[in-house]
Amino acid sequence: MFQGGAGTNDVGNIYTVSPIGIAKAEKIVYRALTTYMIPSSTFLDVRQATILAAHDLYSQVEANAVASAWDAGNVGNTPTANITEAEFNKGIIVYLNPATTTVQIDVNISESFEVLIYDMQGKEIYQKTLLQTGNNSLDTSGIQSGIYIMKFTIDNSSFSKKLLIK
C-alpha cells in the first residue's frame, strides 16, 4: 500500500495500487487499530477499518489506495456493481443470527445474489446458493458452532456479513 504497485495476484486478478507513503500508511493502521478494530476482527473487518481510517485521516484517494491494496491481496472486493454498500446493507437482512439450524435472508433488492459461507480461516463451508428477491432460508444444521463470514456476490462485486452459529 505505501509503495504502490501493479501486477496479477495469485488468483489471477489484475491490480494497480497507488502509493501513499509509509507515514500515511502508519497513521492509517494506527487509527484503524485504535478506533475500529477489536480482538476478534477478521481480515474483512481489518480491510474495512483501514479504508475507514484512510478516509477519516486523508481523502477518498487514500481510501481507494487502501481498498486497492486489499483487493491485490484478494481480501474482499471493491464494489463495482450498480448497488452501493449502503443499499446492500439496507436491502439484505440476515436474521436468526445467531443461528442454530436455519438462517433467514430477506432480499429487498431487485437483483439476485449468490451467497457463500466461509470459516475464519477462509475455507468455504457452504456451497454457493442463489438468493432471490424475498425471503430465503439457508439450512445451517450441518455447520458447527462458531463465527463465519457470509459473502454475497452480485455482478462480480462482493459484500459480507458476519454469521454466528450456536
- Within the CATH hierarchy, at the fold level, what is the topology of the largest domain? Immunoglobulin-like
CATH-derived architecture of the largest domain:
Sandwich
Coarse structural class: alpha+beta
Order of helices and strands: EEHHHHEEEEEEE
Rg over CA atoms, rounded to whole Å, is 17 Å
Largest β sheet strand count, sense and barrel closure: 4 strands, antiparallel
CATH class of the largest domain: Mainly Beta
Compute the number of helices.
4
Q: Quick one: overall form?
A: globular
Instruction: Tell me what portion of residues adopts beta-strand conformation.
Output: 25-35%
Average pLDDT, rounded to a whole number, is: 85
Identify the strand order in the major beta sheet.
6-5-8-9
Q: Would you give an account of this structure?
A:
It is a single chain. By secondary structure, the protein is α+β, with helices and mostly antiparallel strands. The protein has two domains: 5-72, Neutral Protease, domain 2; 85-165, Immunoglobulin-like, CATH 2.60.40. The protein has helices at 22-36, 43-57, 60-72, 85-91; strands at residues 5-8, 14-17, 92-95, 102-107, 113-118, 124-131, 134-139, 146-154, 157-165. The strands form three sheets. A four-stranded antiparallel β-sheet has the order 6-5-8-9, with no helix packed on it. A three-stranded antiparallel β-sheet has the order 3-4-7. A two-stranded antiparallel sheet has the order 1-2. A hairpin with a 5-residue loop joins β1 and β2. α1 (22-36) packs across α2 (43-57). It is globular and about 50 Å long. The mean pLDDT is 85.
